[in-house]
Write a structure and sequence with these properties.
Elements lengths: L1 E4 L9 H5 L4 E3 L5 E3 L9 H10 L5 E4 L1
GO molecular function: electron transfer activity; iron ion binding; iron-sulfur cluster binding
Pfam family, one: Fer4_13
InterPro entries: 3Fe4S_ferredoxin (IPR001080), 4Fe4S_Fe-S-bd (IPR017896), 4Fe4S_Fe_S_CS (IPR017900), Fe-S_cluster_ET (IPR051269)
Amino acid sequence: MTAKVDKGVCIGCGLCSSICPSVFQMNDDGLASVFMNPVPETDTESVQEACNNCPVGAISIEK
């Protein structure tokens, strides 16, 4: 699985990095980014949770 954050949509709420800090981080620009691709198998559930709960739908996943 790979994850992607659309920076044009991200509002920088930080929910993804709080749900799955091993895959998502907040950059200096205040927006989220993915720093672990492919996503480790141990993190797939939390990445899916972050995707499902992103308030603006900025996270996408490819399996």
